[in-house]
Design goal:
Layout: H1 10-52, H2 55-115, H3 118-180, H4 191-210
Pfam family, one: Snf7
Protein name: Charged multivesicular body protein 2b
Keywords: Coiled coil
Amino acid sequence: MASLFKKKTVDDIIKEQSKDLRGTQRQITRDRAALEKQEKQMEAEIKKMAKSGNKEACKILAKQLVQLRKQKNRTYAVSSKVTSMSTQTKVMNSQMKMAGAMSATAKTMQAVNKKMDPQKTLKTMQDFQKENMKMGMTEDMINDTLDEIFDGSDDEEESQDIVNQVLDEIGIEISGKMVSAPAAGKSLPSAASSKQATISDDEIERQLRALGVD
């Protein structure tokens, strides 16, 4: 019962109209087929009268044939009109749906604009930009500090390698001198050998100072 009193929507009305137009189109097609059948029968009757020499009957049938063909041509015109009406109805329905969609979109945009605060949005964007710049600067500082730490460590390791190399060379030189020195049991160390040992220590200190090692 509720469906009987339900208000028809635009879609319901258009569906009913389309259904009626399709029914009209089918009826026109059936009428045209009947006229074409009658046309063929009339043409055959005219030929028959012509063979029998009945000119008056031929004239009457010829006039009727002319009227019948005009009626058949009218069915084509009406059919084209019905098709055009159906197309226009579909186009209007599509336009109405587009208008409805645009109306709903406009309402949504209005609601969003009411909720949005341009000043607050601008401030949020500015704060984001500021914090983003701070983060970038902090990252650069951390990277620079890490680079200094690791670069300093590399320099220190390289310097230590050089010191170790020099000390190894000096140790080899001292060991060679100790091998060439006379044995302690055979003779006592002279003043010259003591002086040479002192010179060796000075040489060591000089080379260390040259490397920057105190």
